[in-house]
Amino acid sequence: MTLIAGTTMNLKIAREVSPYGYFMTDGENEVLMHYTELVGHRPQIGQFYDVFLFFDSEDRIAATMKKPLIQLGQVARLAVADLHPRIGAFLEMGLGRQLLLPLSEQPELKELRPKRGDEVHVILAHDKIGRLVAKVAFEEELAEVAFNAPSSWHNTWVEGWVTKTLKIGSFVMIDGGVLGFGAYGFIPAEERTRLLRLGERVKARVTFVREDGRVNLSMNQRKEVGRLEDSDRILAFMKERPNGGMPYSDETQAEIIKQKFGISKGAFKRALGKLMRDGLVTQEGSWTKLTEQGAAASAEPAPASKPGVSE
């Protein structure tokens, strides 16, 4: 039998060696379980115990009675405990020690890499020289542990963790709660309000439940809801402007609209359209101005610019 790091094995206590701990055996090989790795009562010589095998700080295989959050070849979601700019992220694996997620496993863009507190779906593996290392779990591995989303999720808001971010969009493992590991979802690029980090916690709305149990997601409100919120925000903004006018209209570039109001140009045009239909504003060239009715209308104070109010 071979002692394999990253696995749980049932081994026998062969002998105690003070001040180190207990040597355990599979009948052929021995491994040290340090006193600091004991859980519960002192083990008895000749008895068998389930222990997890790992590499200690000197790269020697060792045993522990502590329960890891992940086993070799398994998928788990682990929290980022620490970061090293040249090595990678260190993940909490439940043993009082951390597991390396190398930079090579992370996005090239620094702003897309996980931060402390993020939670990354990974697989426990061995690196080229046999040490334990975390590898990012992708669609194939996550599909095996995900459950099919129920149709009742349509148009509800859910939360989950980003498992992968691409130019076309971001993949998310939605929190499964009491149902299990989670359901797999995708936020298309046009439905993101910003770029998302690997392992970031994100809240999104289910726009479509697919036949295969996966879901399409959006970080935006439904257009009807967003249009009302955006129009109220724009009206409040204009009421605080001198003479009730602003140099923004249908002709304004999308980048300026996004920067100023935190919404897309499409959402801006929908909100302006509502205000004009209600007789509250009028457009004159590149300017939008309040009408007398608009100046008299009540509006909540404009909140700070918030990216992605609607799309």
Automatic annotation (TrEMBL):
* Gene Ontology molecular functions: nucleic acid binding
Q: Where is the composition biased (Low complexity)?
A: 295-305
Region (Disordered) location: 291-311
Question: Where does the record place the S1 motif domain?
Answer: 155-220
Q: Which Pfam families match?
A: CvfB_1st, CvfB_2nd, S1_2, WHD_CvfB
Top-level taxon of the source organism = Bacteria
The entry assigns this protein to a family as follows:
Belongs to the CvfB family.
Protein name according to UniProt: RNA-binding protein
Which species is this UniProt entry from?
Paenibacillus rhizovicinus
